[in-house]
């Protein structure tokens, strides 16, 4: 008689580690068989079915990372479920401030909004990830409101040997009587 094999069959999608075995990422135990055959779709499949890790089969016959849901309580991007005092609640999926949600072939993703298209910078607007910064030209500095530009008083840094006259965005040197301005426009001779 043949000896029964000591290794029992554990089914597909099982990963072995130092801690024993468990379902591979993207799979979970199916309640009936106790085998790792239930795929997980982290974005949810809405009205469709999860057929493989992060692959949904949708009622319209399409396949993707998630299925479009009829707009409901969660808005147009579907729901994420979060824990709330021991219970579950559905939360609308949203993007961080400064990003907008864009639908792509494999689901939705957040893309940076170019605030410079609508920002009111007096000088130059520089788009950054999740926001923007205003910059001012030479001889000007950003006001405390971070949007408008104000003149820098270059004369405070005493660039001229004798006299300094500040102007918007610039300055001019002059000399006391008996001297004339050097070719470098700063020294007096």
TrEMBL record:
GO CC entries: cytoplasm; extracellular region
Highest taxon of source: Eukaryota
Subcellular location(s) per record: Secreted
GO MF terms held by the record: calcium ion binding
Keywords: Disulfide bond, EGF-like domain, Glycoprotein, Repeat, Secreted, Signal
Entries under Pfam families matching the protein: EGF_CA
Span of domain EGF-like: 151-185
Chief location bin: secreted
Keyword set includes tRNA processing: no
Record has Phosphoprotein as a keyword: no
Protein name listed in UniProt: von Willebrand factor C and EGF domain-containing protein
Organism: Eudyptes filholi
Gene, per the UniProt record: Vwce_1
């Amino acid at each position: 008689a043949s000896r029964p094999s000591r290794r029992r069959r554990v089914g597909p999608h099982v990963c072995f580690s130092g801690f024993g075995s468990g379902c591979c990422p993207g799979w979970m135990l199916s309640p009936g068989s106790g085998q790792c055959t239930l795929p997980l779709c982290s974005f949810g499949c809405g009205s469709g079915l999860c057929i493989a890790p992060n692959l949904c089969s949708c009622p319209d016959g399409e396949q993707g990372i998630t299925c479009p849901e009829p707009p409901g309580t969660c808005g147009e991007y579907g729901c994420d479920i979060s824990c709330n005092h021991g219970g579950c609640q559905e939360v609308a999926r949203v993007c961080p401030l400064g990003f907008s949600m864009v639908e792509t072939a494999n689901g939705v993703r957040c893309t940076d909004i170019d605030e410079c298209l609508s920002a009111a910078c007096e000088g130059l607007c520089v788009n950054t990830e999740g926001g923007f910064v205003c910059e001012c030209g030479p001889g000007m500095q950003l006001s405390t409101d971070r949007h408008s530009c104000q003149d820098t008083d270059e004369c405070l840094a005493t660039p001229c040997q004798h006299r300094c006259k500040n102007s918007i965005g610039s300055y001019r040197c002059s000399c006391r009587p008996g001297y004339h301005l050097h070719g470098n426009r700063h020294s007096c001779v």
